[in-house]
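Give me structure tokens for this 515-residue protein.
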Amino acid sequence: MNFTHEFNAEFGDRFENLELKDVVVKKNDGTCTITFLSLSSSKEISDAEKQEITDWIKSLLQFEQLRIKVKFMRVYVEEKLILKELENFFKDRYKIVTAYISDKSFDIKINTFDVVIGITLSSRMAEFFAEHKITSELSKYLKENFLVDFTISTHEDAEILDEVDIENVELKTSYKPVAKYKVEIIKDVIGKDVNPNPEYISSIKKPKPVAIIAGYIKKIERREFVRKTGKYAGQPKALFSIQLTDGKGKMDCVYFSSKANEKVMESLEETMYVVMQGEVKLNYMNKLSLIIKKMALATEVEKPLENKPLKINFNEDGSVVKIEKLESLEQGKMFDDESVYNDKIMGKTIVVFDLETTGLDFDNDQITEIGAVKIVDGKIKEKFSTFVKPTIHIPAQVTEITGITDEMVKDAPPVDLVIRDFYNFTRGCVLSGHNILDFDIKFVKREGKASGFNFDNPTIDTLLEARRANLGISRFNLGTVVKTLGLTLEGAHRAWNDAFATAQVLLKLNEINRK
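Here you go.
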């Protein structure tokens, strides 16, 4: 079915100013959300017309197991919004370009029916744009977001000198990590287990699936609207609008309240300090807004470390962790015969990983190192290894165990960039490690969730594998298991060394003919 053709056949040119933005199906909450855009300068459709469109869509699709939501958003064509989308485009698709351009590189002219953009570039960067046909791709991207035509041209300026070697790209650019700090939870307001480590509101530049912010309530209002569809159609529902400020920024926050939570929401007052957790979206004014999922009363107890910009080494593909091929690694006879392993290994791609952290407290400690190896059909193929810069100090007692100091991680990439690369490295793979179910995987899932990555991979815990293997031992820590299996572990409590040793344990325990 061609939805656009069906829509035009039904309504003709009545709603020619509407554009279908996207259709998002979320199976976990049973919803299908259809979003239409229209220019702010065009005539706004009435509530009755919106309901007419919604009813037609529901009759057309007739989903039995999905609840259909239809959204209508107005698009504002403004220079600052265009600049923000230009920034998003290059960060997401051509990371290298961000080192060569700034807002001053763009000359934007907004006309009645279109927008004209001139981009001033160095000679080599202009060649790069032409080679990759970036202007046509960018024009299409901007039209999809603003509903008007964009004409984009590039202009060479011979006086602009390149500071980065495009041909041998290991891009060094300034990156400001997200500064998270600690608050103390006093009392739950909405939901439970609110994350006590918010980020500054000013650091949130675009929509994200999970965000935690804290601050003082500057304004709170209650409104009511009548539900138009669903089981409770015709019944009123409370909507609370809260403006939150943390001294560095402010954000509008919205909570669609259940009847049970109305009293506790009405008890909130201006100047109260709260921490909120939810999803950041663009509202009808095209401004960032937090849709509240959880909230608690809190107090601020610890300021973050100084949030200085970092010099990050970006690879050509935008990653920060260089994946090392291990084809030449001497792996011993246990890796030679592909038929030596059982079905748990063969036909699978497995990432065996290990973390080092600032401590054992899952709620408050942070990752300092990730080491991993990728096993394909029983052969170790790739290495993933990196330090991670935490936003808190590494305690002396942890340094004594791991050998990792604040000095060693001071120039490391922040966790939001590393966890993105680790997600890409592990996508579609089985995750394995020693005691990962009680420790490592919890940190990975927490950081992944904070950055919008869902680590739902199947897992193999070698601790459980060793306990089932009748090894004749009473202690199952990694060092003991390695020694019992006749393997070696050098440099224990460093992520890469532990990950490689664990990979050998996994393979050894799953040999077909192991006695």
